[in-house]
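hey so i finally got around to running the thing on that chain from the lab meeting. sorry it took forever, my laptop kept dying and i had to restart like 3 times. anyway pasting the input first so we r on the same page abt which one it is
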Amino acid sequence: MNDFFQLDIDHAIAHLRLNRPERMNTMAPPFFPALRDAVQALHDDGAARVLVVSSTGKHFSAGMALDTFAGDAAVLDTRSARARLNFQDSLRKLMACFDVLDSARLPVICAVQGGCIGGAFDLAAACDLRYCTADAFFCIQEINIGMAADLGVLQRLPKLLPQGVVRELAYTGERLGAARALELGLVNAVLPDAAALLDHAMSVARQIAAKSPLAIAGSKLALNHARDHGTAAALQQMTLLQSAIFDTGEMALAIEAWQNKRNAEFAPLGPVASL
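ok and heres what got predicted. didnt touch it at all, straight out
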């Protein structure tokens, strides 16, 4: 357990809830490895079939805590070639704390109420699905404090939104409201309030958790590869992937359950062997 979020698993649905509303759920340095390790553990264990990331209080998160930039001077030092090389490695480790959301073999649903600001937008962009409340907004806050966003939002948003929209957000620091986010496809639905938002996110999570976890993991692998590669390369990857995960027994369970209008009892993926 940590001071930044609470993580529970119920009926194969993991729920990670940011729980520092008194600090607008800001992300201090220890938050990042805690998130990385929690998501990686879900991936490795294989029991959870979907992860819902939600929050508490008025805002989803105000992003990275500003006192981070007044922290360890050695980490932020770029005054020499050696320092810059070390800075690059440190930043890549920080990026990896959100990469794990994208690479996890279980889908990740992000439920955003209020502000999703700065680093929180990087987090949301790394998730598979996003839903939000009517009062939600998204903001690339980094430009407003004199820096370029560097935890993935500038790399992932162009795959989710039109280039012109992304550049306007990145250059101006303006807020993208819920209605416009829905219109552009950044979010899949807008709900009236936080309670309705969580209900909806959990409903989608239950639908996903009821499917074959093998087919879900394979679908995520295929979608991620297609996003990052050309069609020919993605189709070739699909031939290899399908040969690895094609399971007629799993399909028989799914077909029988579908025909009888009930949920199938699929086995979990199982744990990843530790080294």
